[in-house]
Design a protein that fits this description.
Chain lengths: 457, 483
Amino acid sequence: MRGKRRLAVLDARCKGCGICVPVCKTSALTLEGPKIRLDEEKCNACGLCTFSCPDFALTIHGAEGKARSERLPAALPPRGAIPQPAPGLHFMQGATACSEGALAAGCRFYAGYPITPSTEVAEEMAARLPQVGGRFIQLEDEIASMGAIAGASLSGVKSMTATSGPGFSLMQENLGAACMREIPVVVVNVMRGGPCTGLPTRPAQGDVMQARWGTHGDHQIIALVPWSVEEMFRLTVRAFNLAERYRTPVLLLPDEITAHMRERILLPDYATVQVVDRLAPTVAPEKFAPFDAAYAAAPLPAYGRGYRFHVTGLAHRADGFPTGEAAAAAALLDRLERKILDARADIEEVDETAIADAETVVVAYGSTARSARQAVMAARTRGRRVGLFRPVTLWPFPTDRLIALADRGVRQFVMVEANRGQIVGEVERAVGRRSVRAVLQADGNPIMSRTIEQALA
Amino acid sequence: MQQQEYLREQHFPHILCPGCGHGIVLGAIVRAIGKSGLSKNEIVFTSGIGCASRTAGYVDFHTIHTTHGRGLTFATGVAVARPEFKVITVMGDGDATAIGGNHFIHAARRNMNITAIVFNNNIYGMTGGQYSPTTPTGAFASTALYGNVEPAFDVVALSAAAGASFVARGSVTEPVKLERMIQRALAVKGFAIVEAMSTCPTTFGPRNMLKTVESYMNWLKDHTYDRGKEADLAPEARAGKWPLGIFVDEQRRTYVEAYDAEVVPKARAAAAGEAEDAIGPGAHAMPPGRWELVIAGRAGQGIQRLGALLAEAAIRDGNHAAQIENYGPAARTGISLTEVVASGEPIDFPLVETPNVLVAMTQEALSAHRGRVARSARALVLADSSQIRDLPEDVIGVPASATARDEFKLPMASNVVLLGALAALSKIVSLEAAEATVARRVARSREQNLAALRRGYELGMGVAGLAGGVGGVAGGVGAGGKR
Ligand code: SF4
């Protein structure tokens, strides 16, 4: 039973601003010292002052309230079969394979801004998403695109964007936003020549350090580098799966060649593709903490199932609300780092060719690794004991595997990359500067196998 | 309805300063939501950065405190991916009209289904009182110690011009009217914006002779008027003041409504057609080694198409091929070039380093690329002889464009004639695979194209026969065995 209608002042909330004083028609409120005082004799409980109180300190008790609706909106439809190119052999462009991989992994939202040489991914997604129950939107810039995919993913829909150098620069802000809020998203950066506008139509590998450290502050990131059309599909699926498992943005870093070339791909039946989904909460909404430290990456319920949680880019506690406490902030950064570094065994993928007896190991990634492989095989025919080490997972960098190779007796490492020397520093860090040589080229042209062969001669 | 039911009570008192108008706006929002009958589970509430945006932490919805100016971008993602939600975005004046200005006008133009509330206190409060795009000219701020010289944005006019479905301006001095405006905005399907004139008694007030909360509220009351009573006020009495009321209320189709009505059915119809079939690979023995082909000519001759047909035919043969288009601005200069690498073995580097086959469709292409071709027994230079004045001796000519034009009345099929000739001369692809590829990829005049392909093959065989094996090609074929 509701009691008599009356005004109550919550002293703990009143900040003593006095806005309510002139609002009251019966002068029942007066500011005495730091708090408002209510003269209950004068108050007729009209409630006018409650609308003007900025601090929610004035409330009417005993008011007749409508029963509040607890309705839930429509749930996300379960992932069903989607139309796809027939399973089997295809001749396909890298960008197409990337978007098909995204659809197979369950991506149903894409937001992006046109930029060469990544637009083919957007064009494919614009054509395909409405066929499979998803939606596409072209936004005003890459800042918006990155924000939109983060929002869509938080709401429960797997999301992706694709861009290239300048757009990737614009995405760094909200990429950090996704890292801090632990939002699974996939960002494809088709690398072209830079800095700035650079060489928009030419291949390059100049964004690999930006991928690692582009957004401000300490953070870990996962980045995968495909070298073939087949990997454009497979690694896009993997990027989504890693993003969901570790609640983190995952970057796919093809260069212009890998995204634009067409070659053969054996396309699977999408129903057989292994798809990882974010964990669902096992506790009731009142008990749910979106950043529960009991997990490396906590469950993330889709919106609309009764779990109404808060996310912020401020340092936050397990419940998602901001904190300025040093220990809590440090614990958060620590967990964000550990959830990825402790899972290296799962995340890291490397591809080794002719490595068993190699004295010299070429380190290369992306399309550069294909010319490196050609050079390595040619050197092998001349009796050289050369092998190829290809990090497929570029971040976290597979440092320990390189150390193991050095321990096993590899004397020289030859780093080949289409930039002025970025990953070479990581290799040096792993095996020591003295055993590393670099073949670097950043002129917009792909590194030819003969260039690498000469370096190996 | 009690407004407390929509709040995260455990987090109060909130962080806003004593007397800050933003708390009044937040109260109006939660009461409006309560009266609108929406369930808390149906609301997504996003915000940017600043004092206004901190309110997201205090309401019991799905809340996203985003980055500065980006509340609408996250909201856009939710509104498109999950249109079943009521999406609300709260912003400060800097959030909405400075750093997030672009998102603001485009969300309005697209008519995203979002209720946007701009808490306008004409200042950057959280950072200590710097002037914002809505600071009145002449007002003082920490970065405008000598008075603000910039003109201010009119958020209402901006929103209306950008195409918002609903535009209103209220004030914290009239919280009940403000609440009603927000309630109406919540009922709109589309981009609905309410500008709430608010106060910052910590940074704006003291610098602008509004030292007490009461004097500040009175100043705001004096500087606003009901737009319904506009006619009663002399222009001088309106100058420098904000009219309050509803300015736009014209609902139109939202982005998602338009997308679902027009894009989705067409896309589904396209998907319901024949699915892209897989290539059932044959077992043609490509001459061994790595074939590096350059195909060059003029834009419009179907150069890229020829490269794609060739590479796909090689894959249909059970072999390997990679094709790279030349791309971007270069494609508009009139030159067109594509590279294909083909082999019976998996291909490492997918680009041409030293071509051993050149297909030239113009004199210029021949002159430009002939010198690049490796001097080897395997080398083959094939040209459309109808385009070349003096055919050098070591170049094989096939009158591709004349054949396409005269025999098939299909000038565009010269590339297909060359594909046939190339198949005959090089055996890089089989005629069967080339036929299957053309049949699959060429939709218009399919039969004539197939006939042109076969004619090209005959012409190629003729040349090959005449020459008794062209260059190393015939030998290559003889020596070829699959893997
Ligand atoms: S700084 Fe100004 S806007 Fe911010 S909470 Fe304080 S009074 Fe309100």
